[in-house]
Amino acid sequence: MDDVSPPTLMPQHSGNFGSVPYDILVHFLSFLGPLDILAARQTCKLLQEATSRRSLWIDVLRGVCAENHIFWPTYPISDMATSDLVEAALTPTRFLSFIYKTRDPSESIEPSLSIHFSPGKNGARNIYPIDLLPGGRFLVCAGFKTLSIWDLGYPSERRSLSDPALVATIATEECDEFFLKPTADALGMQVFIISDPSNNVSVFEIHPTSSNPSFHKVTSLDITIRAWKDSYCLCGDRFFIISGNIVTVWDFSQDLWANWQIGKQPRYVSATDNYVIFVENGDQPRLGFWKIPPLHPIGSMSAALGVRSADIWLPLPGDIPIEDYGGLDDWYLTGGVGQTRRIIDGYAYNPLYHEAYTFFRVELPLTLAVNEEINSADDYDLDINFFDLPTTEILGSLGICNQNAVSVWTSQSGLQFHATRKTNIINRPYTPLDLTPFPRSASVRINIPRISEVAAFCPVTGRLCYLLHGHTDNAIYITDCLFRDSSEV
To answer: Which residues does the UniProt record annotate as the domain F-box (predicted)?
Structure first.
């Protein structure tokens, strides 16, 4: 139960705090980061008491979850002791320290003992997608014409891995790909299922910690799907489908849409509230911005807009051959503290060095995420940085951990967590002290039995899930990389 007490004045010996009410002091402390609060605890008896309040750590954990886009139901707040809340609030900081820890380059990490389970029989040879909701507790699995969500328990030093519990399952069309977003109340999630055989996009919703959790279908869109060639992006309530040079925008909450043609098929797509953003490859790669037009009811002739030109083009680095593009997971294009700054990465082989790889990161102007109109290319100076690639292949999209972008790469002996430092991924009302040491990026290699084609990871806890595909069963392995041995972190 939360501490609830009437406002009281602090004792006269409180020094510079004067006569500020005690509960106001606790409220002020909630604006500090977890490490700052623990540092304040060491200063005097009054702050030691104030920083031990359970209500304070609930507020702090709520802020940590918002900043890192952690799925709020990850943590069973009512069942957590104050020490559990403190541990959870510190987890993103600990995970970054784990990645940035100075190690021998050849050193690998043995994760905690893994468990594995089979989510069900697989009636086909296809490999179906899996994904972890940010926070690491809930795993979403697609199977042959099924969708399920499993409770793995939240990652913690005090909790060992246990057998996953099936939360809910539902029959669906065959799934080629799915996308996740939080519900407006932040207590549930919505799943967009792309079905190539059915030429359909279906939206399902579930609140996994409700008294009787179950999937229910929200809506669907019948549209020609070519999953092996199309590109997709989910931003808020809008889903973008790029098939060849045809762009379709579908607002699923209002069942409105529009479509138009562009010059040629893009290599990558992202979006903000006002713009859809494409990467066009060629002799001179560039970013194109199209303002999202007014949307119309499904079937309306007014929704077909013909050929539309970009509102603006911005050049990208053209001196390295780009093999692929990536960016933030679509989950991070919704909600959070302020708006998320868009990131686009270009991955390339570096011909100057033997078996070396590199990538550039483009951080789009933050104003593009806060409804500002684009006027001229001269108004924008793209923030572009170059990094070494730790290995050759990235698994999954980027996640966020305390202003760092975290990804998972394949390596010869396992997987690598890779973090790159960032100045302002999130448009935040304040910027806490960045205690992450130099360098700008770091990797840690995790030993796993086999490299999987399908993997999911939590960028704030180090939980990994990977699928090993069989003829009739798909075994999903779960391992925690951070919560292993306190001497390692």
So the answer is: 14-60
Token output for 374: 């684009």
Q: Are residues 54 and 118 in the same domain?
A: no
Task: Specify whether the backbone of 48 is left (phi greater than 0), alpha (psi in -120 to 50) or beta.
Answer: alpha
Q: pLDDT (tens digit, 9 = 90+) per residue, 407-452?
A: 888 766 678 888 887 654 444 444 444 444 456 778 888 877 666 6
Domain count, the chain: 2
Residue 300: give its domain's CATH number. 2.130.10.10
51-95 per-position pLDDT tens digit: 888 999 999 999 999 889 999 999 999 999 999 999 999 999 999
Which among 31, 58, 93 is the end of a domain?
Answer: 93
The CA-based dihedral angle spanning residues 56, 59, 65, 67, taken in that order and rounded to the nearest 10 degrees: -100
Domain span at residue 28? 12-93
Residue 231 sits in the same domain as residue 128 = yes
**CA nearest to 327, candidates 397, 426, 269, 423:** 397
HEC string of 359-405? EEEEECCHHHHCCCCCCCHHHCCCEEEEEECCCCCEEEEEEEECCEE
Concatenated DSSP letters of 304-338: EEEE---SEEEE---SS-EEEEEEB-GGGGS-SSS
| Token pair for 2 | 């939360």
Domain boundary among 93, 110, 132: 93
State residue 435's pLDDT score: 45
